[in-house]
Every structure is written in structure tokens, then in C-alpha cells.
Design a protein that fits this description.
Strand content: 5-15%
CATH class of the largest domain: Mainly Alpha
CATH topology of the largest domain: Arc Repressor Mutant, subunit A
Helix content: 55-70%
CATH superfamily of the largest domain: Winged helix-like DNA-binding domain superfamily/Winged helix DNA-binding domain
Number of domains: 2
Radius of gyration: 28 Å
Strand order of the largest sheet: 4-3-2-1-8
Distance between the termini: 31 Å
CATH architecture of the largest domain: Orthogonal Bundle
Largest sheet: 5 strands, antiparallel
Amino acid sequence: MIYRHPQFVLNTESKKVVDENGKKLRITGNTYRVLVFLCEKKDATLTDIGTYLDWAKEYTENHIRQYRYKINNTIGSDVIEYENGVYSVRNTDLLQGDMVELEKSNKKVMEKENIKFTIVPGIIASAMLFLSLLEFPYGYYTLLRIAITIISIYYAYWIYETIKEQKFWFWGLVVITIMFNPSFPIHLGDKSVWAVIDIIAGLFFISLIIKYRKK
């Protein structure tokens, strides 16, 4: 949510407060939380604010007055008023809350979540890796490096953006990308070593598509 006031703009997504000129204001902790609460509720009593902050802790009038002072002093204007036991945002008729930026953020999240997982690249990678155990011209192994690198990056990106985890499968793909990258190829010399690596990588891709194909 973004709250727009003539003297400040409060973005609850980024947890930032800026003045009318776009300069970032240092409003943090409970002071920030009080400002958010008052922007949302427009006005509130000591009990309302204390309950919102922490019902288990007894907040006194002095606490809230300090938060009010910090807000007004940092913004440079008496935007928080106190009258008859009620704290409120001054000029509430000019305070606007909108969901524009939040909707954009949610749209980006949805786009990331809609990244489709397909088993086709994994099947291609596994097939190419197992076929590499046979004798092929050198050009095939160059193509193999390029294909495995691209496919590994694709799956690693999908896991990072959709599953939101960086564990065994993600780091396994990172290792494969490093091993097969065509830009800075790793030369192990012994073909039998590469044969073992190809088999392990091929089985890795098969296991990967089995694990995530239904997600």
C-alpha cells in the first residue's frame, strides 16, 4: 500500500517514507509502525496504538507522544495531531492510499510464479549426456557443453524464482553449469572421468524432472 500525503509518501511494501520532494526520511521501528497505523486508521486512541504495537507491553501517553514528535520532526510538519485523547493524521482528506505499486509488484510475482516447468530440456540433456559415452566428432561435445549449460541455467532459474529455495537441486545445477560451461571449459584429460561425470549429470536431470514435473 502507498499512502500519499501533501507532506510525505509512505510505501508499506518497501517500508520507506519520503518527503514531498522524494527525499528518503529516517522513520523506523515503532515510529514507522505508528505512522503506518494512523495512515490506515486515520485516527486512534492510546489504547488502539498500544494494542497495535504490542498488547503485552504497556505503552504510556509519553511513548506515543515521543513517536508523534519524531514523525513530525522528521517530516518537518505537524502531520500527526493530538486532540481529546485521539491521535490522527492531519489533512486526512488529502491522504490517499492506493494499490498501484503493490499491484505491479504482485503482477511481477505472478509472472515469476507462472514460469512453466517442462521436462523436455531435461530429457534432451539426459539423452545427450548418455550418448556422449559413444564416439562422436569433437563438435558434438562442444554442442553438449552449450546445451547442458543453457538447460542447467533454465532449471536453476526456475527453482530460484518459483520454488524459492537454494538447496541440493539448485546448487547441483550450479555445479553442472560450471563443469560444462563452454566459455571457460574444464579439461580433465582422462575421458573415463568425463564418462562418470556425464552419467551422474544425466541421472541428475532425470531425477530433477521426476521430482518437479508435477509442481
